[in-house]
């Protein structure tokens, strides 16, 4: 891995971390398209790489900031995390049987739907 690729990865992680910490998302909505477009990854490789970033405590500092301010429902978060673990495993299994095109289109539809919903709600 070249120093340029390492620097690019650190910069991408920093930008996505800032955005994720600010708006409370996991980052995949930004990371996956960036990996596809800037690194030329297939949809499945981008998704797998995005999931791999979750293995490290990437959200620890953002979580701690919100927790200290009293903005975390820890009990609910733990239940969601348990469901997320099982759902992530099942989704990962299912994704292996879909084409990159189907995954990319499904991802795009989800992002557009969420964007429209966020834009029209008060």
Characteristics of this structure?
122 residues; 6 helices; mainly alpha; cell membrane
Could you please describe the fold and organization of this structure?
It is found in: Cell membrane; Membrane. It is a multi-pass membrane protein. The chain crosses the membrane at residues 12-39, 45-64, 76-95, 101-120. The protein is mostly helical. The protein has one domain (3-120). The protein is built from six helices and no strands. Helix 2 (28-39) crosses helix 3. The longest helix is centred in the last third of the chain and has 22 residues, at 74-95. It starts with a helix and ends with a helix. The model has no long low-confidence stretch (mean pLDDT 87).
Concise summary:
The protein is mainly alpha-helical and 122 residues long.
Structurally, how many domains make up the residues? 1
For the biggest sheet, the summary is: none
What is the helical fraction, as a range of percent? over 70%
Oligomer: single chain
Residue-averaged pLDDT, rounded? 87
Strand content: under 5%
Membrane topology: Multi-pass membrane protein
GO cellular component, one term: plasma membrane
Keywords: Cell membrane, Membrane, Transmembrane, Transmembrane helix
Organism: Terriglobus saanensis (strain ATCC BAA-1853 / DSM 23119 / SP1PR4)
